[in-house]
Amino acid sequence: MNHTTSILLGFILSSLLFGFLVQGKNVTFYIRNSCPFLVWPAIAPNVGHPVIADGGFSLPSGDVKRIQAPGTWNGRFWGRTGCDFSSSSSSTCQTGDCQGQLACNGTIGLPPATLVEVSLQEGVDKPSFYDVSLVDGYNLPISVRTRPTDPKCLIRGCNKSVNKVCPQELQVVNKTGDVIACKSACLAFNSDIFCCRGSYKSPQKCKPSVYSKLFKEACPSYFSYAFDAPTPLVSCSPKAFVITFCPSKWSALQYSK
Ligand SMILES: *[C@@H]1O[C@H](CO)[C@@H](O)[C@H](O)[C@H]1NC(C)=O
Ligand SMILES: *[C@@H]1O[C@H](CO)[C@@H](O)[C@H](O)[C@H]1NC(C)=O
Ligand SMILES: *[C@@H]1O[C@H](CO)[C@@H](O)[C@H](O)[C@H]1NC(C)=O
Ligand SMILES: *[C@@H]1O[C@H](CO)[C@@H](O)[C@H](O)[C@H]1NC(C)=O
């Protein structure tokens, strides 16, 4: 066992143990669908954290679902679009699909999809972190706010629909030719320079690209690439979060020419 592995194992074991010893308080997530269409929210825990709300469900336009997570939960949220679970053979979503299942049950989704990444800690002295990431690409705008609302704890949605400004080489289109998602340059080209790997594995070496700048302009509050700076990471420790798909202005942005 090498050094990194043992540190990682130690970390996982101690967080599990900590979870057992300290019967912590829960955090509430309100998942809101403000899109004018059905969205299938999905949730995947990081290693060592439990699956919550079965990992996925359907959420009609205008609805809110309340779910609970342990106060030390780590994981991600995203939205799936264009799902059809009616035939068991070809049940799949056009974006964010998790192996064709309605309940993702711990599995992550197929990129590109806008990701809300959450790392919660208990206690006022230990802040919780969260961000919205386009590092794997974009499918829907998402906002994150706390309840009660605090402007310091807010991650805004986008000022433009990324799907509308997505260059052809990054586009994901459906059968009718509509752009339904936009890959990140890392996902599309899988090269070290866009993925901040290899000799580009540092903030000094991995600079914004023409593609990440396009994401940043559309969604200034999100991570547009791995070493985005100033880092759009928010640190707040509320008891409740509101995660909204297609927050305010979305319809206007989408339909105006
Ligand atoms: C805390 O959340 C878990 C799911 O993550 C749930 O099973 C449990 O009932 C919740 N506890 C309370 C007190 O709400
Ligand atoms: C969910 O995943 C767990 C752990 O992998 C497994 O034991 C369980 O059977 C799965 N549930 C469903 C409904 O697939
Ligand atoms: C995006 O919109 C917000 C208001 O919703 C505004 O404060 C901000 O300056 C805009 N950012 C850009 C880059 O247009
Ligand atoms: C393609 O996407 C557009 C926009 O989301 C949607 O209106 C249309 O119904 C989709 N077409 C198919 C075949 O799913």
Automatic annotation (TrEMBL):
<protein>
    <recommendedName>
        <fullName>Thaumatin-like protein</fullName>
    </recommendedName>
</protein>
<feature type="disulfide bond">
    <location>
        <begin position="196"/>
        <end position="206"/>
    </location>
</feature>
<feature type="disulfide bond">
    <location>
        <begin position="153"/>
        <end position="236"/>
    </location>
</feature>
<feature type="disulfide bond">
    <location>
        <begin position="158"/>
        <end position="219"/>
    </location>
</feature>
<feature type="disulfide bond">
    <location>
        <begin position="35"/>
        <end position="246"/>
    </location>
</feature>
<feature type="disulfide bond">
    <location>
        <begin position="166"/>
        <end position="182"/>
    </location>
</feature>
<feature type="disulfide bond">
    <location>
        <begin position="83"/>
        <end position="93"/>
    </location>
</feature>
<dbReference type="InterPro" id="IPR037176">
    <property type="entry name" value="Osmotin/thaumatin-like_sf"/>
</dbReference>
<feature type="disulfide bond">
    <location>
        <begin position="98"/>
        <end position="104"/>
    </location>
</feature>
<feature type="disulfide bond">
    <location>
        <begin position="186"/>
        <end position="195"/>
    </location>
</feature>
<dbReference type="InterPro" id="IPR001938">
    <property type="entry name" value="Thaumatin"/>
</dbReference>
<comment type="similarity">
    <text>Belongs to the thaumatin family.</text>
</comment>
<keyword id="KW-1015">Disulfide bond</keyword>
<dbReference type="Pfam" id="PF00314">
    <property type="entry name" value="Thaumatin"/>
</dbReference>
<feature type="signal peptide">
    <location>
        <begin position="1"/>
        <end position="24"/>
    </location>
</feature>
<keyword id="KW-0732">Signal</keyword>
